[in-house]
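In this supplementary section we document a worked example of the pipeline. Step one takes a protein sequence of length 368 as its only input; no multiple sequence alignment statistics are reported here. Step two produces a three-dimensional model, which step three serialises into structure tokens for compact storage. The input and output of this example are shown verbatim.
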Amino acid sequence: MAFRDAIFKRRIVIEQSSVAAPGAIAFRAPGASTSDAVVLRGLTKSFTKQRGWRAVLTGKARESVRALSDVSCDVRAGEFFGLLGENGAGKTTLFKILATLVIPDAGSATVGGYDVLKAPSRVRETLAPVIADERSLHWRLSGRENMRLFAALHGLRGAEAARRIDELLALVNLVEAADRLVSGYSSGMKQRLLVARTLLARPSVLLLDEPTRSLDPISARSFRQFLRKDVALAHGCTVLLATHNAEEAFELCDRVGVLHRGRLVATGATSELAREVGEDRFAIWIRPADQVAIDSLVARGVMRDAKVTPAEVEGWSRVECDLRGGLDGAAETIAFLARAGVNVARCEPVKLSLADLLERVLARHGNA
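The serialised model returned by step three reads:
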């Protein structure tokens, strides 16, 4: 079952059970740092594969697939942390564990210092998933009526509820559209309403599972800016973003963890990871394709891994390469080519695809 569907089907139960019984003692992990919003230690999870009728009749043994393998990571309070990986890497399974929907086979996970197994109700008070699914909104109600419905589920009533709803509608820039039916909202407006609805409970940790997948490129960029500026920075939330879009992760996140086949193969500051795996990759359009000049740059250590292909414009060639020093290396390369009599029409950084990024991460960290 998809992460968003599991959350949707259990929402009412979760909301009704999110407040601990009077006098109950919630488990807070010993030595848990208040500066860490999420702490993962050796998190492991496998699922049993479904068997077809032939396998059942022949008595074939059940097989399991490992979704997460010994994942350990800390996410600091107030941080925008990205989980980057291809489909099937384990991102959704990790989010389900944090949302108390799935029990890990081994290891531990704490949210706000509360263990997801021993204090699930306190975890649900602290953490909230943003369901990037428009079906979970009531389309025949207005935006404000949707907010009132979910405010009631959170125990908000009267003036307090009205004040909180107005505050959040202003935050997501939906005040003018608040009394219109949600069926008339654009996809971007629906996504912002989903965020506002989630913030009703004042969570300190948000889970975003591919929140821009249904948006066009312009709406997606606008929504990312909203998440970064108005949710993470202004609202002070810790945000965990699961995505297979490398550009989205690098644009939004302070730090990134790269998941590959259930293993966390690399973590680090976004700027450091970008520099390590792709910031020094450039494409240069030149004429003529002077192999002697390119070989000289390679010999000088300025250029490496150069690939020359015909450009889309006749007579020009495209050189894709790594340049030592990033922009400084690009400036040195252009100056050298000009002195060698080679015309340079364009020089720009190359945005790596997720496949290229994973290949580089795995090669550099010895996990291929």
